[in-house]
Design a protein that fits this description.
CATH class of the largest domain: Alpha Beta
Distance between the termini: 85 Å
Strand order of the largest sheet: 1-2-4-3
Number of helices: 3
Shape: elongated
CATH architecture of the largest domain: 3-Layer(aba) Sandwich
């Protein structure tokens, strides 16, 4: 009788584990679907930016808040290129005297890389810009001063000359 009760307990635990694994799998599928949707929306936004530039549209202010292009150390180069490409497209749409408010939420895109990317983007576009303000996450997202990666939320406000 003792073994039978132990066996029933093991079978119940196995069934619960399988149910939990299924729930985790379902959650992963939902997460992947959301990521895919965000990627599609971002790709559409890039196409819209290109179309507006081709039409000669310009704006007083553009707020650029793309998704994290780099989530691991291994993808920093590709992420850097992605940030630079989208910022170059946006820079070309801002009127002289206008502002580009651009953001990054990638922890591996350090503040130094972020500002370097902005310098390169403006130079490659032949655009003069002034850094009006550079911000990081608010006090409610306090972080360790020991790691550059802790400053993951960055916002730069550029005035286009």
């Amino acid at each position: 009788m003792k073994w039978r009760n132990g066996r029933i307990c093991l079978e119940n635990q196995k069934r619960k584990s399988e149910e939990n694994i299924q729930k985790i799998g379902d959650e992963c599928n939902r997460w992947n679907a959301n990521v895919k949707l965000l990627e599609q929306k971002f790709e559409q936004a890039q196409r819209d930016l290109s179309e507006k530039r081709e039409n000669g549209d310009t704006y007083d202010v553009i707020v650029l808040d793309p998704p994290a292009f780099t989530k691991t150390v291994d993808t920093v180069k590709e992420g850097y290129r992605g940030y630079k490409d989208v910022n170059k497209k946006a820079l070309k749409l801002v009127k002289k005297g206008g502002f580009l408010v651009t953001c990054s939420c990638s922890q591996h895109m350090t503040i130094n890389l972020f500002t370097q990317m902005l310098r390169e983007a403006t130079k490659e576009c032949g655009i003069n810009a002034r850094l009006v303000e550079l911000r990081i996450q608010a006090k409610d997202h306090a972080n360790s001063i020991s790691y550059d990666e802790c400053l993951y939320l960055k916002v730069a406000i550029l005035r286009i000359d």
